[in-house]
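Holo prediction. Input below; ligand is fe (iii) ion.
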Amino acid sequence: MFKADLHCHTTCSDGSLTPRALIDLAKSIGLSALSITDHDTIDAYPIALPYAKEMGLLLGTGIEFSCLLDKASVHILGYDFDLGLEAIPDHCAKHRLRRHARNKIILGKLRRLRMAIPENELEELEASGITVGRPHIAQLMVKYGYVASAAVAFQLYLGDKKPAYDPGEGFTVEETIEVIHAAKGKAFLAHPHFYEKQAFIRKLLEMPFDGIECYYGRCLPEQEKPWLEIAAKKGWLVSGGSDFHGEAKPNVELGSSWVIEELFRKIFTRLISS
Ligand code: AMP
Ligand code: ZN
Ligand code: FE
Ligand code: FE
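Structure of the complex:
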């Protein structure tokens, strides 16, 4: 059976598997296709593209961009963009600068909470080129003995609106969709199931998305149904994926959510590996 998992992360952002190891795992569990959607980076692709081809796995281009609406975090998936255009790498470079400034602000807040982490810890991670964010700070808080686990770090300090949280400077939903369109890609609202406030969801659904991630992680069919109805009403494409992060999110398995071949082919018209 054709299964395509269209949402997963690698060591290029906050996942624990390298792009090659992720592709090996996808093959071993019988997936036919994948889109790697690292946070604010497409660095997996130069490695993943030839390796997926070698392994006989279909690979469509993907990214998960962070942005802000009313100071709350929103994730937007970009799919099927042209890797040869500059719009996506240009925006990724802006995200690196934004994240560097924001990570420093979060470390400052932690310092004032008597949980100092040396800045060079983050700088070393940033220098390696990966997307560095709250999950890495959570791991450092564990390393320095301030919390027992990354989950507790989020729960008490780093989660949205918690004392060490800071949204930092952000990009808007509209400009993020524009970047994806400039690269000839399709913009999808990621995991809409997370949002609780109706007015916020209404605002999001007014944005010029091409699709919506209806199948997600370990959601139940009844949680996915309302979003499938919205996609049908709006004529939007439907995507789905696990949001696999490896050990960083041990309860979510690769392939726990996926789309059928028909949906995959509607999204990906410029397959980079076949
Ligand atoms: P950032 O992009 O730096 O704002 O970090 C957001 C990322 O942190 C998300 O994409 C998740 O992978 C992770 N995350 C968010 N909330 C939690 C949580 N409560 N527990 C563990 N990880 C989380
Ligand atoms: Zn993540
Ligand atoms: Fe996300
Ligand atoms: Fe994700």
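The chain has a mean pLDDT of 96. That is the main takeaway for now.
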